[in-house]
From TrEMBL:
Protein's GO biological process: acetyl-CoA metabolic process; methanogenesis, from acetate
Quaternary organization: Monomer. The ACDS complex is made up of alpha, epsilon, beta, gamma and delta chains with a probable stoichiometry of (alpha(2)epsilon(2))(4)-beta(8)-(gamma(1)delta(1))(8).
Protein known as: Acetyl-CoA decarbonylase/synthase complex subunit beta
Co-factor: note: Binds 1 [Ni-Fe-S] cluster.
Organism listed in the record: Methanomethylovorans hollandica (strain DSM 15978 / NBRC 107637 / DMS1)
One Pfam family linked to the record: ACS_CODH_B_C
Region annotated Disordered, chain positions: 406-428
Length: 476
């Protein structure tokens, strides 16, 4: 059946990147608009395999151009229910990436597609070819879908009309988990879709933790596991509660070990520093530790500027992704900001020091009232120094951590350190070793005096020191 298409269809094309120079056309993305949406429909309300295009087709698009795109799929079947919409919608990302010469990134109203020049040369000249391939894959791979009909829109005005409806659907899905919490259920859900490019990624979806991609919530996971228990979304029995504050469960740890092929055996759902959730690459937002203020900043895909640490989203995303537990960085879905357990192991909102102003506006309702003015944005500060001043001026809760650290420094230790000839502790009182020292992080260390500085003793507390190689040389 796939012979009818002028392109190959295979999972081996997942991960294919189409660079600007090799792109025939770009669709949606950060410089345009677009969305993907799946809706459950009644069997009688759709015509199987029907495709409609509103707006110009690929053949009408000049090389190097950019257009908006909306992709709307209606699905029907005896087992199809509204909770399955997000699951099928997420598979659009996967299946479009099976098509050689088509790149699909992100999800919902953040989608970003590119069609390569080679694909167009080989005959990919119509969206109908793509839509037909996706409809075929939906029905082959997701047998609960008995009928599917597709509408693609590339007309800007039409998409502007439709996009608000799509956003209302996303919002309604996200709102469903508001009254349900991790402790109310016995089962969480896992997803391995992103293991194709992040092999050790362990995605755990709970009522209080939406997926990193932001596209799958606990209800969606449940619906998917019900209709296709052997599929990429599956049930995880919670097991015993190991630690409530960080959201550690024995069942999650067992799955983490199995799914990561033994790379991780602990995963704390609501922890930023210790055994954090893995980050694949689909996350909507990256959190980053700012050691100079002992706080956490968050940057989203839509922010094109530079965070106070001097890095852009794309740079931090590169460091965070790949399915690792990266201490000091964490990928999340936007809706996790709305969770009452949002990084509860590490102070929750009290630890948040910076966000892009657009992202802050988006989640403003979830920020505790007393913190709304204390979290800096790109409009308030540009670098770590101005962030530090802002937090101090606003009396942000992290400032108390600085004071506590200074006051709590044990006398003996102070005395020992203060003997160091170049002790940075004294020169830079704003720097400290945080209470919850992220493993592998040494945000600020007293300067080591040279050997033979006369009985100086440096005490490292809560520090993890790893030495890969020691070279011993004879001093001539
Ligand atoms: S981010 Fe997680 S939930 Fe979303 S598709 Fe990837 S593995 Fe699945």
């Amino acid at each position: 059946m796939a012979d009818e298409f002028p392109f190959e269809i295979s999972p081996m094309f997942e991960g294919e990147r189409i660079r600007k120079d090799n792109m025939h056309v770009e669709l949606a993305g950060p410089k345009s608009i677009g969305f993907e949406l799946v809706r459950a429909a009644d069997m009688n309300d759709l015509e199987d395999d029907k495709f409609t295009l509103i707006g110009p087709d690929i053949a009408d698009m000049a090389e190097g151009s950019r257009y908006p795109i909306a992709m709307i799929y209606k699905i029907a079947g005896e087992l199809v229910e509204t909770d399955l919409e997000s699951i099928v919608e997420r598979r659009n990302h996967e299946f479009q990436n099976y098509i050689q010469g088509l790149m699909h990134l992100n999800q919902r109203d953040d989608v970003w597609l590119r069609v390569s020049k080679e694909a167009v040369k080989k005959g990919l000249t119509s969206f109908e070819q793509i839509a037909k391939a996706i409809m075929m894959l939906f029905k082959n791979e997701l047998p609960f879908i008995e009928k599917v009909e597709t509408v693609y829109i590339t007309d800007q005005a039409e998409i502007e009309k439709e996009i608000e409806n799509a956003r209302a659907v996303y919002q309604a899905r996200d709102d469903r988990t508001k009254g349900l919490h991790d402790e109310d259920v016995d089962t969480f859900y896992g997803c391995t879709l992103c293991q194709s490019f992040a092999p050790t990624n362990v995605c755990v979806i709970t009522p209080d933790r939406i997926s990193l991609c932001g596209a799958i919530n606990w209800f969606d996971g449940r619906a998917a596991a019900k209709v296709d228990p052997e599929g990429p979304q599956f049930a995880i029995e919670k097991g015993e509660l190991v630690d409530a504050a960080s959201g550690e469960y024995s069942g999650v740890n067992e799955h983490a070990k199995r799914l990561s092929n033994g790379e991780y055996d602990r995963l704390k759902l609501h922890s930023f520093f210790e055994y954090p959730h893995t980050s694949c690459g689909c996350f909507e937002v990256v959190g980053f530790y700012v050691p100079e203020v002992d706080g956490i900043g968050w940057v989203d895909r839509d922010f094109a500027g530079t965070a106070p640490n001097g890095l852009q989203f794309s740079t931090m995303a590169g460091q965070t992704g790949g399915g690792k537990q990266v201490v000091g960085f964490l990928g999340i879905g936007v809706n996790y900001f709305r969770s009452p357990k949002f990084i509860s192991a590490d102070g929750g909102w009290d630890r948040v020091v910076w966000m892009p102003s657009m992202l802050k506006q988006k989640v403003l309702d979830s920020i505790p009232a007393e913190l709304k003015d204390k979290i800096a944005t790109d409009e308030d500060v540009k670098d770590v120094e101005s962030l530090k001043n802002f937090l101090k001026e606003k009396d942000h809760p992290v400032v108390k951590r600085w004071v506590v650290e200074e006051e709590e420094a044990p006398e003996e230790e102070e005395a020992e350190v203060s003997q160091a000839p170049q002790a940075q502790y004294q020169q830079q009182p704003m720097q400290y070793v945080p209470q919850q020292m992220p493993a592998g992080f040494m945000p600020s260390m007293p300067m080591m005096g040279g050997s033979g500085s006369g009985g100086v003793k440096i005490v490292l507390k809560n520090a993890k020191v790893t030495v890969d190689k020691i070279i011993i040389k004879k001093i001539e």
